[in-house]
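All the exercises in this workshop are built on plain-text protein records. A record pairs a protein's sequence with a compact description of its fold. Backbone structure tokens are a discrete shorthand for how the chain folds in space. Once this layout is familiar, the rest of the handout is easier to follow. As an example, a complete record with its sequence and its structure tokens follows.
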Amino acid sequence: GYVDTQNRYLIAPQYRWANDFHEGRAEVQTRTGMGLIDREGGYVIPPEYEIVDYAPAESVVRVRKDGRWAEFDYLGRRLTEFGTNND
């Protein structure tokens, strides 16, 4: 989960792993997979992927499912189809 500077929960503990927030988004991992959340804990990209890699400087999220990669935007809209390799 996430806490404020006074150690009060902003988002309750519920993740196996959680990254820091960058530009209002954070990668998280649940028992079902990795996803991307906003500052309120809402899923921008649901936790159903093997890897979620957010590049805040580009506002692009690269996700992998079944060994194939696709790109999503900051709002969780898919920009590309899932490819056949690691490109």
In short: The radius of gyration is 13 Å.
